[in-house]
Amino acid sequence: MAKILKEEKVVDIPEEVEVTVEGKKVIISGPKGKLERDFTHAKNIMIRVENNKVIIESFLPKKKDKALAGTIAGHIKNMIKGVTKGFKYKMKIVYAHFPISVKTKGKTVIIENFLGEKVPRIAKIIGDVKISVKEDEVIIEGIDIESVSQTAANIELATRIKGKDPRVFLDGIYIYAKE
């Protein structure tokens, strides 16, 4: 079996986006904002910008190096998409009997009257994410996909019901759309 000498992944850069690479630190700025990410954990990977393309390459790659090159390319694509379009998660507030009220305060989301509980449930907001609550809908927006999705997951986990049949007790806040 022949040994592969070089693994290369190429990510195109749109005109309105600017990418700079300092060692293994990638900084991407666009119309919606600026994101930076550190890939120093990737030992055998080299990242460079050339002719409006980000090139991720590995010489004499092992299986893990090939996978890591693809993962880094995926992260860079998500960063470019974030600074151009942004990410939006929509969540639905579902309740059967006790109306749930959702408020944001600082870096937390406060969920009150969940299943008639007196103590409010609290979910943490990660990063620079904007949350808006309209009637029975929670909208989470931001440029970093990881911050947006982790904030949505925190809200969903805060309303998880333990010790009861999930087919009967359907109350909670659930993700229904990702844009």
Number of helices: 2
Task: State the CATH superfamily name of the largest domain.
Answer: Ribosomal protein L6
Proper CATH architecture of the largest domain: Alpha-Beta Complex
Q: What integer value in Å does the Rg equal?
A: 21 Å
* Number of beta strands: 13
Structural class: alpha+beta
What portion of the residues fall into strands of 2 or more residues?
Answer: 35-45%
Q: Estimate the global geometry from the Cα principal axes.
A: elongated
| CATH class descriptor name of the largest domain | Alpha Beta
Whole-number total of structural domains: 2
Oligomer: single chain
Describe it for me?
By secondary structure, the chain is of the alpha+beta class. The chain contains 2 helices and 13 strands; from the N terminus they run ββββββαββββββαβ. The chain has 2 domains: 6-84, Outer Surface Protein A, domain 3; 87-178, Ribosomal protein L6 (Outer Surface Protein A, domain 3). The longest helix is centred in the middle third of the chain and has 22 residues, at 63-84. It is elongated. Strand 3 (25-29) and strand 4 (34-38) form a beta hairpin. It has helices at residues 63-84, 145-158; strands at residues 6-12, 18-22, 25-29, 34-38, 46-50, 53-59, 87-94, 101-105, 108-112, 121-124, 130-134, 137-142, 172-178. The strands form 4 sheets. A 4-stranded antiparallel β-sheet has the order 11-12-7-13, covered by helices on one side.
